[in-house]
């Protein structure tokens, strides 16, 4: 059984052998194991009280996974470095300009053109380019997510109250109790079809606040091949989570 408390989704499992309510955090879920007679109100209060611990545990689990996963981003952002974008690696082309800030442009969907202000110390080039690329990708993510919501939401009236692009280290997306959707911009490093799957996944939570058979059937109505995109995230998501 899937539940939500304070926008924190968890699976509830009743056990006749459980003497106390406990929480188990793994890479792909939060599970609450509770005795048969404990009320759902008490369980929700317990989970809410443990919210800080749960979020810390999620970060620890994500950190262990990332340590073992290969890093997609370059160690240094210099001319010719390969930057991950939509499951590809695109080279950087760096030029200097009279502009006051670092500017990023995607040329022919093949090259990241970096316009770097003159007079910046060499040791500052890489961190400033990384920051500019992050800003650029967040803006792109917002556009892509909105386009996907516009494409899929009308079919079954799955309209979110709001859409926010966030930096998250343990979740790809979420749908709150009032249908506010958060999306992880790091999905822009994954194949476009994977981003589409996560958007659809969160939209379907507007109708089903769980992962019941009805929920997955609704996902399949939008994306019949969603399982392959879900599998991609399980296989390569840890590398994507490391970001730029």
From TrEMBL:
Keyword annotations from UniProtKB, A to Z: Hydrolase
Pfam name, any one: YgjP-like
UniProt domain YgjP-like metallopeptidase: residue ranges: 19-235
GO molecular function, one term: hydrolase activity
The protein's name in its UniProt record: Metal-dependent hydrolase
Organism listed in the record: Methylomonas methanica
């Amino acid at each position: 059984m899937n539940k939500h408390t304070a926008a924190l989704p968890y699976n509830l499992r009743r056990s006749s052998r459980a003497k106390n309510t406990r929480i188990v955090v793994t890479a792909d879920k939060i599970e609450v194991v509770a005795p048969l007679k404990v009320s759902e109100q008490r369980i929700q209060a317990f989970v809410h009280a443990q919210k800080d611990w749960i979020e810390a545990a999620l970060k620890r689990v994500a950190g262990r996974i990332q340590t073992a996963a290969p890093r997609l981003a370059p160690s240094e952002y210099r001319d010719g470095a390969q930057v991950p974008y939509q499951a590809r690696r695109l080279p950087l082309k760096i030029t200097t300009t009279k502009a006051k800030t670092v500017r990023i442009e995607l040329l022919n969907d093949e090259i990241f053109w970096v316009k770097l202000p003159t007079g910046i110390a060499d040791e500052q080039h890489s961190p400033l380019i990384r920051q500019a690329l992050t800003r650029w990708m967040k803006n792109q993510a917002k556009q892509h997510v909105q386009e996907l919501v516009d494409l899929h939401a009308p079919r079954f009236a799955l309209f979110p109250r709001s859409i926010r692009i966030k930096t998250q280290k343990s979740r790809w997306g979420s749908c709150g109790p009032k249908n506010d959707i958060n999306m992880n911009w790091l999905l822009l490093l994954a194949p476009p079809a994977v981003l589409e799957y996560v958007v659809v996944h969160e939209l379907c939570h507007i109708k089903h606040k769980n992962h019941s058979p009805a929920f997955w059937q609704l996902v399949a109505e939008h994306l019949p091949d969603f399982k392959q995109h879900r599998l991609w995230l399980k296989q390569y998501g840890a590398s994507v989570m490391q970001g730029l």
